[in-house]
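Hey, can you fold this?
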Amino acid sequence: MGDMANLFGTGRFAQPSGQEEATDEAQEAADEAAEEVRLRLAVDGGDVEAMSMLGAMLLRRGDFDGAETQLRAATAAGDRAAANNLGVLLHQRGYADEAAGWWRIAAVAGSAAAAHALGRHFRERGDEPAAEYWLCQSAEQGHVLGAYALADLLEHRGDDAGAGRWMRAAAERGHREAAYRLARTLDRGAGPDRDGEDAAGEEVEQWYRQAAARGHRRAALHLGTILEKRGELKEAGRWYLTSAKEGEARAACALGFLLRDAGDTESAAVWWLRAAQDGDGNAANALGALHAERGETQTAERWYRAAMDAGDDNGAYNLGLLCAEQGRTAQAEQWYRRAAYAGHREASNALAILLLRGGDETGAEPWFSKAAEAGSVDAAFNLGILHAGRGAERTALRWYERAAAAGHTEAALQVGMARLRAGDEREAERFLRCAAGGGSAEAAYRLATVLDARRPPPPAHELGEPAQEKSECEEWYERAASQGHRRAQVRVGMLAAARGDVVEAARWYREAAEAGSRNGAFNLGLLLAREGSEPEAVVWWRRAADAGHGRAALRLALVCARRGELAEGQRWADRAVSLGPAEVGERAARLRDALRQELSA
């Protein structure tokens, strides 16, 4: 199991040797025999309490005949405990009605245990009013089992207030199932978004902890979940381990994930295997994913099928993913469909993508819609793309907005761009900020351009005046540039050049140019030429001109003309005329004509 004991501090406990156990059992047997002898001597002397105690001892041992003789004698002498135990004996022998008669006698005499037993008897027969009466008698006398049984009855009848009161009473008296059920009720009432540190959360944890400490395996599981969410992983692992050892498959699965996250994959696999063999589909999927990562696709497929057999639809979805990765499109579609028909939203989205790639746009749209309606953010975004491709911009925008509201970065970018086109700059800024904050380089660049357009012209910079701090738009340009956005890199270079930081400007221009930006290559050429590195500038202008940059072509024509390379200069001037823009074309045409005249002279 790797270093699990060290990770969770479980430690080891020394187990008594077989010889010590045998000695203890022999001593207990000797003590019980001695006690029986003492009780029989007292019974021979007419001691009613001894008769009752001896009958109870024989009942526990399974000597029903001997127990019945002693219990009837004690009951005839008015011992209410004996009457209760006689009822238990008769009930075990199948004489339920006669047992109820003796329980009634004991209950009337004040036996809380007998009142509890009588209440259970009436509930089994469907007489709930009588059951409630006797269970209430038992609970009000402080009988913990009576309180729990009464709470269960009231909960069944829909009396939540009464059930809660008696469930709490039973829990406070140490009933572990009552503590667990009380915690579950409080947990559900607190809702999924509650803060684990508030008063309600503390009480939920308290009751889970009480039940778990008394050996309740599901309480230990829930306690582990609370602790894991809070980041207390070592203690969470200990409770998962406790629950898993008691046979709780979900705890074994959760323990496996905790171990995996701690880097102990081998131990995680052991617990997932244990959970999967007990029918936990999530663990079977985890095992499938583990083997898939190792390239053991056949074993992975076997575990995904086991997950399906356990009723986990993720198994079919994962099988679809596995087949898609292997290029088995038909099988992938089959498994995606199976999961999608079962309501698996991600499988519905994956199926739609598969159909769309195959050219079946009509078949894809309903699956995108089904996934989106089920809450798939990716499917909502994909529907936006689908409708945008058809020219249905308003419908596309509606789906983009839905995905953006759920935090989809690219959808927020699309909504921001649509708002910009519509002239709603404030709303555009809001969506672009969301997308940029989510990591979209294009959104960061677009946001920077919006903010840049609002900036007032910078004041004249006087000698000795400190450099101004970077504006927000520059920060967004830099964020986009650092993510590889070429236009942002060029813009950051231009801003750096305007500040006189030639080294920084050259760095950004070069980065953009090397990524394929023709503006970056042109600007880098300008910077190098100003710094006296014209041969290197020509290299970058040539790259920009070859990519269709008219000004770069004009610069090359001028360089060639200055060097006397008239034919080459004329060729680049022709190129600049064809590339434009208009003012560049006009200048290039004049230069071309001059070079032509020079060549023909």
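Oh, and this one too while you're at it.
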Amino acid sequence: MVVPELRPWRAARPQVVRIANAVRPRLARAGAAAKPRIARLTRALRSRTPALPRPQAVKTWQYTAAATTAGLALAAGVVTTAGPWDANGQRTAERERAAALERTGGADHGRSGTSVDAPRPAPSAGPVLVGLDGSTSAVGTKKAAPGGKPLPDVLGPLLDAAALGGTHAAAVVDVATGRRLYGADAGEALTPASTTKIATAVAALSALGPDHRFTTRAALEPDTGELVLVGGGDPTLTARKNADGWAGLRDLAANTAKALQKRGIHEVTLSYDTTLYSGPSVHPIGVNDNLAPVSALIADEGRTDDSSSGPAPRVSDPAKDAASRFATFLKAAGITTTPPGPSKASTRAQTLATVSSPPLSEVVERMLTNSDNDIAEALARQTALTSGLPGSFDGGAKAISARLTKLGLPMSGASFHDGSGLDRDDRLTPDLLTALLVTAGDPDRPGLRPVLTGLPVAGFTGTLADRFTDSAAGAVRAKTGTLTGVNTLAGTVVDADGRLLAFAFMASGTTNPGEAESALDKTATALAACGCG
């Protein structure tokens, strides 16, 4: 019997072998460095296992052992390099990293990218994290664990690196207890760049639920015989031959054609409905390869090439493009159409066929892993609509802020203007970013878990695939954020004592993006290696 989870790895075996041979020396060094920690974790596992009742939730130390051990093996997947900056100073490398490795999914719900044969992301840790006690009080940051340094002594010099510019802020929180272990201007609101997507993910999952799906439908007007392709705001709708589990425009056309032929209809007037969203469709940054015009009807994110992630030229009218492709597929199935034009489906229109996205949990993971701006802006609008606000940039920003406020998160200084973080006027604090991550790990809020499982794995997936390759690979999971002069990193790390920590490092005024990223990586690596109090 073939185990489904092993199929992608078997298909990718030749590539993995080549990669492993290339990085074997670094893996040997990493293995030697991690050997003492793995030994400690193994002894802890053996000593605690007999006392664990079978139905009990997975504990933090189990999460640690799995993440640390898996990290050494996963580091063999590192093979790509950072991409360039575009003419507007907008960082494109984040999603180019994910595109280069052709991986579009998160840890739990990953799907292949532009290559069907690309390896799936690694499994995530256990399904439940240790419960939080709800405490948010700070602990004495000068207190250290036996044999360890105080966190300020470890992180302070690293965060003061010249590469991180003139302004930086940071926070570290113990996920299991909710206590802040370290703070440096943790309440200062700075430009978050793409770490904004963590907030968007929490807001969307809170508003819609992890099982929510976005539906695209074809509806027939009974009086006029007009066929209307109705956009449901699915940012993952695809026109590719292999939909790979995402909603397929070809499938919708095939099923629509069958329904029409059963009615004896072989020719229709084709229209498309995008009225679900409102307001400007173009982001304030203007036309940009990082984001298509936002539309309730869009196929393959309006890309004009075969990519499925990363920057790419986009069509100017995604809805018309999707409807034109739909018409082509209908014609192949025996249905003749007029050239498509905009319209609005009436309440009397009869739905002939539908296709739906995977659950929101998978969509969120894809967004976070690849830093997908198109998905982020769609989720902001969907959050707005669920909250009774217009499906626009402004409505999405207001809805995100309102949802996070309702969750009781520290919103002082926070300001949202979009869902992707492309807007330089966005402001978040390290306090808020770490609180979002801690909330996502709360066992009483299992619907928010994709926020953690969707974070890129250091040295292995998404926008961290080519970072941490010789340090904390597999032990750090974090969302990157990069704009001109802005570098941020926020996520989780398992430290030397087996604790799961949430961290947020934010820097403004940086001048060399590569050096700034390296400085942030060194800081996260130090946190992973630290047995600090």
